[in-house]
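User: My instructor asked us to take a sequence, write out its structure as tokens, and then describe one feature of it. I'm not sure where to start. Here is the sequence I was given:
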Amino acid sequence: MQGTSVQTCDELNYFLEYVRLLLQKQPIEGLGVWSTRFTQYRRDGQYHLCFRLLQGIKGADLPPYGVAIVRYSEGWLYDRMGRWEEAIAAYKASLKTFQAEKMPIDSELWTNIASLYQDQGHWDEAEKTYQDALAAAEQRKDKRGRGGVLNNLGGLYLLRHNLEKAAHCFEEAVQIFQEVADQYNYAAALVNLGSVWRDQGRLQDALNSYLESVSVYQKLGDLHALGMTLASIAFLYQFSQHVEEAIVMYKEALSLFNTIGDHANVTKTLGNLALISSRFQRPARQIARLIFESLGLGILKRSGATLTVLQQCGV
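Assistant: Let's start with the prediction itself. The structure tokens for your sequence are:
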């Protein structure tokens, strides 16, 4: 293991030296090579290597658009690391460079800043920044980008309990993603719209929206998103006091979470099953045992959070 780590470190050092030399002669090509490697590490969740890439290129003599790209990447990494103030500072530095050089700004940059404001509870600032993101998407005639911004803005309105505005955003996002054939984001927007309709009391519309997203996620093979949507359907049934249907959906979601090894959602779903059982006078102990027998989850009894749920169920 240690040898592999040293080998990775050496390879990365050689790569960074190559990028620095390439930047001196062909800046555009050098930035492209660096960005490709950063994206690869980002997708693999190797954030420590992303950080090394950033540290390795910071001292390089970069053209303005290069500075903008690197600071944007830095903001993204800090965002994922939960270092929100540093993420906002890096994103804003990237934004400032884009504006100073009169370069077109991707709506995603504005959206990321807005999402950080939203996560920190600065909702007015978040809404204003989402509007900037919409303007950027409009300027670039970026239809898909507009859909992404609307999906995020709708989430903010949902947090602020402005269901009418949230529904408007999600409905337009659903339409856009359908038109541009973006199936994944289409399904995500459908789930969000279903949640608004549920809160508005439009339960059948909500169920139809959820079921449409289930169909898409099944085709895409995204088991995590499918499990989360089935859990949303279960909550909808629970909300409307269709207890047996809710239990069936929770168990289907639980099966998927177990398949992909998502222990956090396994525990959460077990808790929901215990809760629905106690509220509607179902034998929680019997349900918990049935789940373990049918899904073979016995090994998870040893995890602390799951054990706590089982103890609450009397198992």
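For the description part of your assignment, you could build on this observation: Confidence is low (pLDDT under 50) at residues 297-307. Try explaining in your own words what that tells you about the chain.
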